[in-house]
Fold this protein.
Amino acid sequence: MRGSTIDPSIDASEPGSLPDWLETYVTVGLYGLVVGTILCLFALVTNPIPDPSFPWYTLPDAYRLPVTQPRIEHWPVSYTVGIWLWIAFVPAVFIRGYQRWGTGRVGATGWLVAAPTAAMLALTTYCRLFWPKPDPATWNAPAYTFVCWAYCATYDPLWSNLAYAVALVGVVATVLATRRASGATVVVGSFGVLALPLGLPALWAAIQRFRSRDGGRRAIAGGAGRSDGG
């Protein structure tokens, strides 16, 4: 496992270390992002317009293979799988960033809470205002959080408003965690759950913070018990 010192705003009991399952997820996830990119690019050589939202994303006929992939709703199979690999594994980038540079200026709170929050704000704004939405809306629409998926699958503004509300929880969580305020663990964990799968780094940070504090209380209680017994 790679190590780095987690900052006091996260307050983890084992600085910089990851449980085996999370280390595996991060390692597999980084490869998954590469595979996802390759699969999305492969759609270029099989389908004239892989993504109807971006008709410019195409190649001349001379560079395409004499086969055409079937589509899942609006998108070719390999493109669909590639996009969903990105959705599943983008959180690994933030966690690896924390491991590598968590002791730097950005800090653990920056990597595990602020970065997912910023990403959610950016993606929600893009999908609401700038994404050329394919018609009709479909269950297979790519989205980095469950609440964002509900918007992309229906185009109902209510879900986009809720996505902004969840991102606001992330902003509050970042501020509270940075200031080491009481209740920060609960707010960070709430954002992590509400923003899944993008919120996975924040959820893990909240769990680590809770375990650290719980372990400290047990150690204090154990010491008091030994003192009384003596």
